[in-house]
Amino acid sequence: MSTTDDVYAGANDTTEGKVFTVTGRDWDEIVEGLAGVEGVEERVVVNMGPQHPSTHGVLRLILEIEGETVTEARCGIGYLHTGIEKNMEFRSWVQGTTFVTRMDYLSPFFNEATYCLGVERLLDIEDQIPEKASVMRVLLMELNRISSHLVCIATGGMEIGALTVTTIGFRERELVLDLVELITGLRMNHAFIRPGGVAQDLPPGALDEIRGFVALMKKRLPEYAALCNANPIFKARLVDVGHLELDGCLALGITGPPLRATGYPWDLRKTEPYCGYEDYDFDVQTWDTCDAYGRFRVRLNEMWESLKLIEQAADRLAGLEGAPVMVADKKIAWPSQLSIGSDGMGNSLDHIRHIMGESMEALIHHFKLVTEGFRVPPGQAYVPIESPRGELGAHVVSDGGTRPFRTHFRDPSFTNLQATSVMSEGGQVADVIVAIASIDPVMGGVDR
Predict the structure, then answer these.
(1) Strand 379-387 to strand 390-398: parallel, antiparallel, or no bridges (unpaired)?
(2) DSSP letter at 379?
(3) 379 - beta bridge partners?
(4) Would you state the pLDDT for residue 1?
(5) Where are the beta strands (DSSP E) in 236-371?
(6) Beta partners for residue 390, in sequence order
(7) pLDDT in tens, 32-60
């Protein structure tokens, strides 16, 4: 292969030898082009991403390959850095929810929940959160777990050519997003879970829609098992690929489905319950193959458990009609009374009438609460929760002011990406795609 005639495959001298920019061609031609390069024996360093449909976002993989075998794999991150954690230091505690919901954008409710639980611990109001708010949090998080796992399975299927899995995965996800939009008004970036509770009550008819969704999903989920569980092509791509045993997971801090696929039943909903999970009936799902196939089966089984949790939450909400969804302390509850008015927007007319025409003190309080925010006692808190990707926690620090002094997130996508090299090295280039998909990283959570 000539590197002087093709402007798209030119060679440049670097301190580490020649770098070839390859766009297409068969692998044999690339190897032939390296034949005369001193010290090179079919070993090449190539970039996969950051603009690549199989890297689950703007993730750059630096692969050293010998033939088709990966000898070294490294992650290059930071392409989706948003500065969310730093920006939060210049916003009120409640405004922080509008930032954190945009980190791991496939599981926004979990970002909001861990942050708000940390703030509530600093405020020492954990015991004052209304039961209905906690049940709604569980409901929304489990709906979100299903939608996140569906995206993981759908995109993973797309990357190995299982396009039917892709189409039905996004078909079911739309059903979840419709429900979430009905409850919060938005498909994503909700900022619905807030310090002290949730933004507003369930709209009329929401419980009927939720129960209809559960009934439909019980018919749809078996399709994934029928398409994939025993499919010889699907299993050939996933079985024994991305192998990582329990001791490796523990050494790297890997959590979530990759950990449970080793047979270890670590799930924070059971081991360190929050939001009342200890009062729900569900099982921790595990597998024992330590590979990509096991992680797929864990996620598929977890969606069934989430349906059980959603049913229980819906039954509880039916008995809590009219109950409060925000903490009673008016110095924390923000906004003071948020409910959809007759025009479908904003605060209720009763609340507007009260603060605009009946009480100057209420108007002043509302204005200060919205513009300045409430003060949080000095201290720090960390409340981990079980997100679809593993342990997600917010380390929240207050200096006694109306804004976070520091907030740092322990995002499972960031931690789990450490396993890339262990899962990929020694395998083939095609297996790197499967290994990354089995981790299910979301780069918004990695880079923040």
Answers:
(1) antiparallel
(2) E
(3) 398
(4) 45
(5) none
(6) 387
(7) 665 665 555 567 888 887 877 777 788 88
